[in-house]
Amino acid sequence: MTFADLALILFNGMAWAAATFLVAAGLTLIFGILHILNFAHGGFFMIGAYIAFTLLQLAGGGGVPLWLYLVVALASGMAVAVLGVLADLAIFRRLRGVEDAYVLIATYALLLVCDGAVKLIWGLNFMSVPTPDELGGAVFLGDAIMPEFALFVVACGLLAFIGLDLLMERTTFGKLIWAVAMDSWMAKLLGIRVGRVLMITVVIAFGLAGLAGGLLAANQSLSPSLAGVFLLQAFGVIIVGGMGSIRGAAIAAVMLGLIESFGTVFLPDYPGILFFVALAAVLLIRPQGLMGRAQVA
């Protein structure tokens, strides 16, 4: 194996990790605080991507500057965050304290609603989003070729991790979130407005799903099946990292991304098999995940 081959494998693993973490971040947050395994997360990721597609079509439909692409991604995140408010009022606050089986059924039903809404509004045809003008090329590291858009995704994943980690570990609101996650009853006795904290958490989680959809739209073929493209990998990341742990999800994304990348090269006839082997191994050795917290396990 040459240096270029190894560099390309590592780069592809990091690009996979960054893209998957962008999707998994909101999923981790909503589970860690509300203890709700949200199957509909992939649906709102898909809606974010379609909203970005529509906004870019209104902007001309061709190649767009990077700043406009970022603005559209942020707008997609904000639009899905508004849907998060509606979902919290109509569904999520009714699921607090409900048995897990009913939660899974409710969020899966919400995923079906998202799927139906996308088919109704945008149809069944495949659609595509152009890559921003500044990210259409590639960077050469010796003989290794690294697409600029993939480098952009890696940078976005890193910034998302830093921002979420600072929010959860360094801010007053992050401490409120952890207090509610650990013991909502005691937090309420201490004067914390638990309902408001939970609603804001849902809005942030949905906004992250929409933002991920907008950022990754140019990397996907948009279709109603998009909801499931990253959802399985995202669930794998939060399981391996530890339910509710942002840092654990980031570490798991990098680990699984590298495993997936090496597996693609060395076991091309068995795509994804090393991902599932690694997932099973972690569950057997450390069921709570790499950085799982006992109170949210």
TrEMBL record:
Alphabetical keyword list: Amino-acid transport, Cell membrane, Membrane, Transmembrane, Transmembrane helix, Transport
Record carries keyword Transmembrane helix: yes
MF-aspect GO terms: transmembrane transporter activity
Annotated TM spans: 6-31, 43-60, 66-89, 101-124, 144-164, 198-218, 230-259, 265-285
Major place of residence: membrane
Compartment(s): Cell membrane
Any one GO biological process: amino acid transport
Keyword Membrane included in the entry's annotation: yes
UniProt superkingdom: Bacteria
Membrane topology classification: Multi-pass membrane protein
Pfam family membership, one: BPD_transp_2
GO cellular component: plasma membrane
Family membership noted in the UniProt record: Belongs to the binding-protein-dependent transport system permease family. LivHM subfamily.
Name used for this protein in its record: Amino acid ABC transporter permease
Organism this protein belongs to: Tistrella mobilis
